[in-house]
Amino acid sequence: MSDQMVEAQISLEELYGRHQLMDVLRDSFAPLSDDPFKIDVVCQIYLHKQADPATMVGLFSPKYGTPQDVANGLTECVEEDLLDYDMHNRKLVLRYEISQEIEEALARYQFPLPMIVPPKELKNNKQGSGYLTNKDRLVLNASNIFDEEDICLDHLNRFNKVPLTLDLSVLTSEQGEFHKPVRKDGEMWDDYLKRVKQAQKFYDVSKEVMEGLLVLGNTFYLTNKYDRRGRTYSVGYHVNPQGTDENKAVLQFANQEVIK
Length: 260
Description:
10 helices; mainly alpha; two-stranded antiparallel sheet; 2 domains; three-stranded antiparallel sheet
């Protein structure tokens, strides 16, 4: 493991650390107001695109006061043109977007990337699943309740040590090309088009991330965590053996053997 590869890995982790969704959104919308509540409202409307007042009150109360306090604050947001209100649908509607450059950076870096060096050996429950600098818990969505519990670290260490590689010829084959999702029974046309757009974006960004891994040597490692029921999940998002059919098909073991 060369010093150059370690430095590149640390840089990848720093990219992830700088592109946490809510932090980036708050920074982007900060010029709109000095009130943290109003900035958080704009952030949530950006994420949801539109929401009824009752939903927004539920999101922000009691953190920002009583339901009436939140309702009054939402009214101020509309009056100050931080968001719009659709009288017909009775919903608060997005008024401000983030730049395309920031949106593209979030799509690439807001999720942990595969490691290009072997993960650190796990010795406790708060090691960030093997990353060199990022620290978080090994049980998904579990706060601190499992911090001192007996978790089988040997299993995760074995998973984490498996070197992987990509066969991007899968994506250039007819089977690996982007295919539109099938429209669901009763699905509104606009909703279907949104789902197609999201699937296309995920496919395109995943391909870009994979091409970046090729440049870095095309040998990498996926780290793993448990959920509360003890099931193992890969931390990967764009590259993941538990993802779409294309995500699964493109992954190969780096150490391959011919079976006779």
